[in-house]
Amino acid sequence: MHLDDDDDLRSTLRGADPSVRQESLGEATVRRLVAAAERDAPTPTSRGRLRRPRRRRLLLSGVATTIAAAVAGIALIGTLSTPAVQDPPPVMQGAPQSCSALTVDELRTNDVAFAGRVISVTGDTVTFTVTKTYAGSPGSTVTVAQISDDSNDDGADLFRSGRRYLVALADGDVAGCGQSGPGTRQLERLYKAAFTGGVTVSPSGR
Amino acid sequence: VGVGHDRGVLHPSASRVAEYDAFVRAHGGAVLRFLRRRTDVDTADDVLGDTMLVVWRRFADVPSEPLPWLYTTARNCLRDAQRAARRQQRLVSRITAIDRPAVSYDHPAEHADDTVHKALAKLREGDAELLRLWAWEELPPAQIAQVLGVSVNAATIRLHRAKKRLRAVLDTTEQDPSTTSRPEGAV
Question: A with B: how many residue pairs have Cβ under 8 Å apart?
Answer without folding.
Answer: 161
